[in-house]
Design goal:
Layout lengths: L8 E5 L4 H12 L3 E6 L2 H12 L8 E5 L5 H14 L5 E4 L15 H29 L2 E6 L12 H21 L4 E7 L6 H9 L1 H4 L1 H13 L4 H12 L10 E3 L12 H6 L20
Parallel strand pairs: 1-2, 1-4, 2-3, 4-5, 5-6, 6-7
Helix pairs in contact: 1-2, 1-9, 3-4, 4-5, 6-8
């Protein structure tokens, strides 16, 4: 299908730039009507105008400023979204920040906590606000943006790493809570993106983020990074009917064969592939630890 989201509606957070904007555009190109939110007023309106330019006459593109880490903002946003889209189908939790960079004992503690509030609490608050709606209609898609911090240690970027690992485990847990109500919850690892977050790492410098990681990001910047379209395409798939029944997974937009997952739906439901799990000595061919 060239427009797999035809007739669907979605709320996309952090949609005024970078991957969030790319997802909003991809959703509209796939046939959906979208409600975009972010904190910056001017940039958000520019993004809405850009996305609306690719919409057809029967599609709606709306926007509203909101801080997803604030309960009042989230409640007001959810009310506005459901008033505009009474049959909301998809929530894309994209809003996120890197947070402070440096050794944990040196970084600004308030900034560290703030990153957790945005990356972790912000997504959970959005889920809490919209789950009653999804449960009432017995259908919904929650697409959670994750990142390398969920699957690998990120020394000196600890708030980001901790929040991304936590939100993936929350998504896995929520997926089990709502499995019987036809609500799918999945996380996306979009790859190393050439966005403002990458620029923040480069600006922080090797002293803050570590020489090895900084050099890797310099190389990523020079090579252009992972195209935003890869993560956006996976977000479209997870918001579409084609992915119904695929839930509780962390999928790499770059490395995983996600287009073929509908063919393996039974296997996915019966195994722990594409999930966060503890590795034992036996998993690595070691004889001790039994």
């Amino acid at each position: 299908m060239t427009r797999p989201l035809e007739g669907r509606t979605a709320l996309i957070t952090g949609a005024n730039q970078g991957l969030g904007l790319a997802i909003a555009r991809a959703y509209v190109e796939a046939g959906a009507s979208v409600f975009m939110c972010a904190r910056g007023v001017a940039l958000l309106e520019e993004a809405r105008t850009e996305v609306a330019a690719v919409a057809r006459h029967d599609q709606v593109v709306l926007a509203r400023t909101a801080d997803v880490s604030r309960q009042k903002d989230v409640d007001e946003l959810a009310h506005a979204v459901l008033e505009a889209f009474p049959q909301l189908h998809v929530l894309v939790n994209n809003a996120g920040v890197y947070g402070p960079m440096g050794p944990i004992e040196d970084v600004d503690w308030d900034a560290w906590v703030r990153a957790i509030e945005i990356n972790l609490f912000g997504s959970i608050l959005m889920c809490r606000a919209l789950l009653p709606h999804f449960k009432a209609q017995r259908y919904g898609k929650i697409v959670q943006l994750s990142g390398g911090g969920a699957t690998n240690p990120l020394p000196r970027i600890s708030a980001y790493a901790a929040s991304k690992a936590a939100i993936v485990r929350f998504a896995e847990t929520l997926a089990e809570e709502v499995r019987d109500e036809r609500i799918d919850v999945n996380s996306i690892a979009p790859g190393a993106l050439n966005t403002r977050l990458l620029d923040e790492v480069l600006a922080a410098g090797p002293r803050a983020v570590g020489k090895e990681f900084h050099e890797r990001m310099v190389k990523t910047k020079a090579q252009g990074g992972t195209p935003l379209e890869k993560g956006a395409a996976l977000a479209v798939f997870l918001g579409s009917a084609a992915s119904d029944g695929v839930t509780g997974k962390l999928l790499s937009a770059v490395w995983d064969p996600w287009e073929t997952l509908p063919q393996h739906r039974d296997d996915l439901q019966q195994t722990d592939v594409y999930t966060l799990r503890r590795i034992t000595p036996a998993d690595r061919g070691l004889s001790w630890g039994k």
